[in-house]
């Protein structure tokens, strides 16, 4: 599994782990992000059960596993955090931030750890001590694609972890962790966004929220990272895209009444 330092500023370092050559072809490729701040780790969407050994090994090259004190699960999908019980066994003091609406479902991955769940309200919250200089903001991203979903924003490093927003299903031989050619990259994310994003109103609300922020890197859970001007390119492209394609496809379904 490849690892790369994205940014380092004000005592905070962002790392990404992905493009794992040892991953099964049957498992969708994912990016895992680690934020290290004052010797403690915040792991974003730690990944599925199947890739836990590779992720844990890569993360341990950056920080001691026991130093991970916070996890963030943007929504409920198994590729997001079905590995949670394994991580909880290694990080006995860690808290897990998640949308409140999914807490009862996520408990199916390990109900014995529910006392460490931090149920994020629909309006969002921050991760960090009350008087901490550096806080991470959980921004509402509901229905993009999950009915309870959040993005994470770092206002100092100017990075937004967008989860499935901006995701791309890259070819197996793709190696880069960054988007190199935005126009060429569209082919790998267009179908995904049309099908997996159900609401044009919801995605436009998220876009307007993000446009108010300073964002240098937009980091999705699948595919390449958007950098600099590519962030605006993505927001402009996404704003014009009509999503919810399954509704159109369903119009051609067989008539059950006939």
Automatic annotation (TrEMBL):
Report the superkingdom from the record: Bacteria
Q: Name one Pfam family in it.
A: ODP
Annotated membrane-spanning segments are: none
Signal sequence, renumbered to the chain: none
Supply the InterPro entries for this chain.
Answer: Metallo-B-lactamas, ODP_dom, RibonucZ/Hydroxyglut_hydro
Location of the Metallo-beta-lactamase domain: 29-222
Q: Which Gene3D superfamilies match?
A: Ribonuclease Z/Hydroxyacylglutathione hydrolase-like
Q: What is this protein called?
A: MBL fold metallo-hydrolase
Q: Which organism is it from?
A: Sulfidibacter corallicola
């Amino acid at each position: 599994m490849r690892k790369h330092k994205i940014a380092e500023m004000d005592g905070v370092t962002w790392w990404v782990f992905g493009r794992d050559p040892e991953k099964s072809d049957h498992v969708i490729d994912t990016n895992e992000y680690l934020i290290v701040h004052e010797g403690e780790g915040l792991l974003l969407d730690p990944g599925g059960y199947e890739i836990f050994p590779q992720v844990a090994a890569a993360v341990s090259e950056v920080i001691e596993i026991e130093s991970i004190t916070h996890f963030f699960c943007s929504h409920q999908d198994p590729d997001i955090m079905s590995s949670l019980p394994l991580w909880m066994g290694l990080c006995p003091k860690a808290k897990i931030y998640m949308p409140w609406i999914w807490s009862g479902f996520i408990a199916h991955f390990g109900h014995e750890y529910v006392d460490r769940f931090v149920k994020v309200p629909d309006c969002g919250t921050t991760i960090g001590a009350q008087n901490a200089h550096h806080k991470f903001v959980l921004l509402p991203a509901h229905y993009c694609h999950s009915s309870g979903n959040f993005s994470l924003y770092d206002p100092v490093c100017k990075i937004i972890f967008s989860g499935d927003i901006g995701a791309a299903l890259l070819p197996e031989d793709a190696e880069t962790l960054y988007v190199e050619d935005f126009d060429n990259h569209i082919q790998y994310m267009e179908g995904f966004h049309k099908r997996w994003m159900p609401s044009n109103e919801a995605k436009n609300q998220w876009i307007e929220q993000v446009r108010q922020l300073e964002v240098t890197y937009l980091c999705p859970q699948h595919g390449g990272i958007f950098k600099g001007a590519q962030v605006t390119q993505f927001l402009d492209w996404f704003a014009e895209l009509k999503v919810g394609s399954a509704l159109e496809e369903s119009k051609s379904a067989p008539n059950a009444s006939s």
